[in-house]
Write a structure and sequence with these properties.
Blueprint lengths: L3 E10 L2 E11 L4 E5 L6 H9 L6 E6 L2 E2 L10 E5 L10 H10 L5 H14 L15 H13 L5 E5 L7 H18 L2 E6 L2 H7 L2 E6 L2 E6 L1 H6 L4 H6 L4 E4 L1 E3 L2 E3 L5 E3 L7 E4 L5 E4 L7 E12 L3 E7 L8 E6 L11 E6 L5 E2 L3
Parallel strand pairs: 3-8, 3-9, 6-7, 7-8
Antiparallel strand pairs: 1-2, 1-4, 4-5, 9-10, 11-15, 12-13, 13-14, 15-21, 16-20, 17-18, 17-20, 18-19
């Protein structure tokens, strides 16, 4: 398939840098997620790879060959959009075969390849239907088959599952991953959905204000975020700020939080790493006393929002698996504790 190299790419609109000196490599056969808030630059990066946007600076290469001057239709890419962009007046088979038709491929070859694509996306037998006769998930699979039928080097997906409901989106995540593995294609997808990024990606890049914040395997970014922004964007995080000391981090009220390694002034702990016990009592490891201000019961788990002197107006979050059926009441005095190795120093 293809390796995509982005080197020092910058794209400005006036004084605004949509991409700011971005360098990143997408490996051959990798499923790579671009994650960030609206306006962060992730779609600009995707469209620059596609050729819809020409960078002001930097290079984009496919397998070592620069493509900045190569037009979109010659970049050997496939694209899938959130809106599907299917032609309503064409049958499913005609939609899938459209890319081959405009390339002048023989009709019998198009029919054969379209049938192969339909089988791959599990839609055999529906070739004569029209898009309006399919469900959202089926339409998304048609869009995927249409993108893959030309055998592109790179598959680009812009919020590919954003228009689906939660249950269908989860099902399609599994199918999309299976199809990408089956074809071995290099896939780069844009999403703002944290769960989707964690589920699909071999690696992810968190982008903010046109800059790369962190690039790594999803588990690494989640368990060892580099910055407060990365920690808060990929999941929830309790953030502590203070003065670095030998033991870890000294907070404004004098409380010392032991950290995994020396802190630079900020550290986070994920809510699911906390233990919550009734009453104010010293606990093993790091511990903070507080009062429950909200208990959110969701069946399999309970999320507690806890008022503490340490964090002031910002509640401490604790995510507890429902193993006993017990839910501590609002107003209850509690002690939240966690192991020092779960306190991760981050850059502010």
């Amino acid at each position: 398939m293809s390796r995509v190299d982005i080197q020092h790419v910058t794209k400005r609109y006036g004084t605004f840098a949509a991409l700011d000196n971005v360098s990143i490599t997408f490996n051959d056969g990798e499923f790579f997620g671009l994650l960030g808030p609206s306006g962060s630059g992730k779609t600009t990066l995707l469209r620059s790879i596609a050729g819809f946007i020409i960078p002001d600076e930097g290079t984009i290469s496919f397998d070592g060959e620069q493509v900045e001057s190569v037009p979109v239709h010659r970049r050997a890419i496939g694209m899938v959009f959130q809106s599907y962009a299917l032609f309503p007046h064409l049958t499913i088979a005609e939609n899938i075969g459209f890319g081959l038709d405009v390339r002048g491929v023989a009709r019998e070859d198009i029919k054969k390849r379209a049938a192969e694509m339909l089988a791959m996306v599990r839609l055999s037998g529906l070739e004569g239907r029209y898009p309006r006769q399919l469900s959202g998930g089926q339409q998304q699979r048609v869009a995927l088959a249409r993108a893959l039928i030309t055998r592109p080097k790179v598959l680009l997906l812009d919020e590919p599952l954003g228009a689906l409901d939660r249950r269908l989106r989860q099902e399609m995540q599994v199918e999309l991953k299976d199809i990408q593995r089956e074809t071995g294609i290099t896939a780069i997808f844009v999403t703002h959905d944290q769960e989707e990024a964690l589920t699909l990606s071999d690696r992810i890049a968190i982008i903010d204000q046109g800059r790369l914040i962190q690039v790594d395997a999803p588990q690494t970014v989640y368990e060892r975020p580099a910055t407060v922004f990365a920690a808060n964007f990929l999941g929830d995080a309790n953030v502590f700020r203070g003065t670095p000391v030998a033991e870890g981090l000294k907070l404004a009220d004098g409380t010392v939080i032991a950290t995994l390694k020396p802190s630079t002034g900020a550290a986070i702990v994920r809510p699911e790493k906390l233990r919550v016990a009734g009453g104010h009592k010293k606990a093993q490891g790091n511990s903070i006393e507080g009062e429950i201000i909200q208990a959110i019961y969701s069946g399999a788990s309970v999320t507690y929002r806890i008022r503490t002197k340490v964090l002031g107006d910002t509640p401490l979050l604790a995510f507890i698996q429902n193993q006993t059926g017990e839910v501590l009441a609002t107003g209850a005095l509690v002690t939240a504790s966690w192991d020092p190795e779960q306190t991760i120093p981050v850059d502010a």
